[in-house]
From TrEMBL:
SUPFAM superfamilies: Homeodomain-like. Residues 163-263 form the HTH araC/xylS-type domain. Gene3D superfamilies: Homeodomain-like. GO terms for molecular function: DNA-binding transcription factor activity; sequence-specific DNA binding. PANTHER family: BLL1074 PROTEIN, HTH-TYPE TRANSCRIPTIONAL ACTIVATOR RHAS-RELATED. It comes from the Bacteria. Signal peptide: none annotated. This is Helix-turn-helix transcriptional regulator. SMART domains: HTH_ARAC (SM00342). Keywords: DNA-binding, Transcription, Transcription regulation.
Amino acid sequence: MTGIEQTRQRAILHPRTAAERFRLDHEPAPADLTPFLDGYWILHWDLTKPHRQQVLTHPVVHLTFTTGGQAHITGVVSDTFTREISGTGRALGLRFRPGGFRPFLTAPVSTLTDRVLDIEEIFGPAARAAADSIITEPCVPTALRLAATLLRDFRPTPDPAIDKAAGLVETISTDPAVLRVSQLAAIADMSVRQLQRLFAEYVGIRPKWVIRRARMQEAAARAATDPQDWSALAAELGYADQAHFTRDFTASIGTSPARYASSAGRR
């Protein structure tokens, strides 16, 4: 399993309940857009009562087209993201690579952090008609092609710094030994200050946050599926003691590791 596949799975909290409430599919990005786009996700739901889903988000930007006419750009969400869905609907999302949204902006990606913007605010007034076509198109492959055309019309320019930023985020996701910003700076052959500037400009959030979020995703995934020795897991994730780990977990997810493990379906 690649780092990208792992992070896709680890974003969804309470995964067993989520699987009963909606279907989440993934499709790869067109080859010409892979310098910017990680891929597509398509959410389908048909509910008799509303469902609130928690997501432990990744350091990426999303462009989302949702039943009801919503077309939004969501920057990196530093807290836990919760969304309510109800009735019957579909959301089609474009997940950008870490750093991959930078060519579509005239400012650092950090200016989008913890913000949700209407599509017109970035792509201009003409994007509204394109968004409406994507939202109302019943055929998912056709809707994806329309979304790709919207990005191509913007004529983004590939940037080697995107690969640098995305590669470092991938390293954090796949190498549990990376626990400190100084370690990541050494891997990147950069000073800590240079690394911080790269993340602010391209990723949108500090490298320390990315490391902590990846470890919390790992902890939540393991808590939801397997019995854990919390003290041992805390040490494995780089914490000096279990109490510090428990505080971080609770702050990130809203409940203690033991309570999350129980509510996520493991007894």
